[in-house]
Design brief:
single chain; about 375 residues; Aspartate Aminotransferase, domain 1; Aspartate Aminotransferase, domain 2; four-stranded mixed beta sheet; 14 strands; about 40% helix; about 20% strand; globular; binds pyridoxal-5'-phosphate
């Protein structure tokens, strides 16, 4: 028997040393909060870090729905739904999601991450070229890799470059275009109508990841039923719960049920999570949801009028400077995470402000004062390029 020359302990220590040498060691802090206000490692803070954009994670009706579901139906779903069966709550939420998105069908998965892996690995194969925006989320990047497809990275939000790439597409292969509709670290948005038109002309399937699309962009009404558009969403941001979903044609959803490994080989979402997401969706689709979106819109406009999403980047550049800026904001009671490589490109480290309808006027004013005191301001789209 030959043993490896280096032990696991040595290998792991070398990896940690490399992380330390690059100044990229991360650690998890302790947050105690209901809604934006709470304590971080024991110090009072207002969080501008969460994707709970409408404040539904702590909404009384959402909390009550989760608690009722646990009391009435229990907690865990027990197994994959292909093994153990779907509970009425799963079916009801899928029907509501399909109705919300205007698609024939919807399928729940454990997370948005799993939903992207499921869609890309089921729909694309070695015979497919995937055209993927350069700033797409990591779950899309991982999905394209797992699909074993040929992947072409398209310059960010560059419709001309995409059109050129599609014009050169090898006709014997399938074409799939995938993009975030709101880019999670830049807060800018894709032109979904133009993308849909381009993909239609090219015979390409369009996969839209709408994880952060609380203020839009909306797909035009005429395209909501389109069989060649697949919408991926999450229950964990606007809906304040946990889980992911795919909304698409029945044909595509049926294929996912039969082939999507992140659906087949994992336990179905828990019953309290499913009920919480459904209660949140009911709120979003009603008058209260419209009012919450209006509140969020006003909060965003207070910082950058007309900005299309609740994600406001403050691009700093150097990693250490971004960390120092985040610490200075924290010293002023504002939790705003520093985002560094590998999440964003080297030299574009930034603060990522995420606003919520749950932020009070005073909390927003506190952030304003803190940014002003440090001479910082959100970086308008494109200014960081
Ligand atoms: C664009 C995008 N897609 C997918 C996900 C994954 O969603 P989830 O947190 O539900 O796994 C995220 C964030 O986490 C995201 O920003």
């Amino acid at each position: 028997m030959t043993r490896p020359t280096r032990s696991w302990a040595e290998r792991l220590a070398a990896r940690q040393d490399a992380i330390d040498a690059a100044g990229r060691r991360r650690s998890i802090r302790d947050l105690d909060a209901v809604g934006p206000a709470g304590t971080l490692d024991g110090r009072p803070v207002v969080s501008f870090a969460s994707n709970d954009y409408l404040g539904l994670a702590a909404h009384p009706a959402v909390r009550a729905a989760a608690a009722d579901a646990a009391r009435t139906h229990g907690v865990g779903a027990g197994a994959s739904r292909l093994v153990v069966g779907a509970r009425p709550a799963h079916r009801a939420l899928e029907a509501a999601l399909a109705s919300w998105k205007g698609t024939e069908a919807a399928l729940l998965l454990p997370t948005g991450y799993a939903a992207n892996l499921g869609v890309l690995t089921s729909l694309a194969d070695a015979d497919t070229v995937i055209y993927s925006d350069a700033l797409n989320h990591a779950s899309i990047v991982d999905g394209t890799r797992l699909a074993r497809a040929r992947v072409e990275i398209v310059p960010h939000a560059d419709l001309d470059a995409l059109a050129q790439a599609l014009a050169a597409h090898p006709p014997e292969r399938a074409a799939l275009v995938v993009t975030d509709t709101v880019f999670s670290m830049d807060g800018d948005v894709a032109d979904v109508a133009a993308l849909a038109a381009l993909c239609r002309d090219a015979g390409a399937l369009l996969v839209l990841d709408e994880a952060h699309a609380v203020l839009g962009p909306e797909l035009p009404e005429s395209l909501r039923h389109a069989p060649d558009i697949v919408r991926v969403g999450t229950l964990s941001k606007t809906l304040g719960a946990i889980g992911g979903f795919v909304a698409a044609s029945s044909q595509i959803v049926d294929l996912l049920v039969n082939t999507a490994r992140p659906f087949i080989f994992t336990t179905a979402p828990s019953l309290p999570d499913t009920a919480a997401a459904h209660a949140a969706l009911d709120i979003v689709r009603g008058d209260e949801g419209t009012a919450l979106v209006g509140r969020l819109r006003a909060a965003v406009d207070r910082f950058v009028p007309g900005h299309p999403s609740p994600i406001l980047p403050v691009v700093i550049g150097d990693e250490r400077d971004a960390l120092a800026a985040a610490q200075s904001l924290l010293d002023r009671g504002c939790l705003v995470p520093a985002i560094r490589p590998p999440t964003v490109a080297a030299g574009t480290s930034r603060l990522r402000i995420a606003l919520s309808a749950a932020h009070t006027d005073e909390q927003l004013a506190q952030l304003h004062r803190a940014l002003d005191a440090l001479g910082l301001a959100p970086t308008p789209i494109g200014a960081e390029a």
